[in-house]
Amino acid sequence: xxxxxxxxxxxxxxxxxxxxxxxxxxxxxxxxxxxxxxxxxxxxxxxxxxxxxxxxxxxxxxxxxxxxxxxxxxxxxxxxxxxxxxxxxxxxxxxxxxxxxxxxxxxxxxxxxxxxxxxxxxxxxxxxxxxxxxxxxxxxxxxxxxxxxxxxxxxxxxxxxxxxxxxxxxxxxxxxxxxxxxxxxxxxxxxxxxxxxxxxxxxxxxxxx
Length: 209
Fold this sequence. Notes:
Helix content is about 65%, strand content about 0%. It is an all-alpha fold. The longest helix is centred in the middle third of the chain and has 26 residues, at about 100-125.
């Protein structure tokens, strides 16, 4: 997340996928039941507030856009300032929630935001109700309508391509891969990534049943 502040998210995410791939290939397999992963308040509160700043971005004014953007980026480092190892957290601790619950909330909120932004984007295109070719050219023109729009837009495209390539090579959740390959470009990485990265506690439980 820190690297993503100085380079494109598509670059930072690829390095993140590489780190995950190397850590998975060197992690020893264990049949012991692992305790549930827990998220401390400083983590889940920061994540949820940051999602609300993302949702509020289209409604900001020239006066409130920059403060909203600064809050969004500042919340990235808050969990790092007050870091607590997940192994030291207990399920009954004050305001601690399961990491699976946090990922579920991220998935639901991201999906709601995706529906809203997709509807606004489609209805704002001048040729959205005409041929697919006209729709594509309108979207292409908007993508290159401004240098900032082009930079962010292409970063999203390359991030989506990188994510699809990564999940296509993962052995975990192989049954879901075809669906994720189709859903990621349409639903966005923000919706499908929380499901892919969800801690697989249920798999550990099934091994011991």
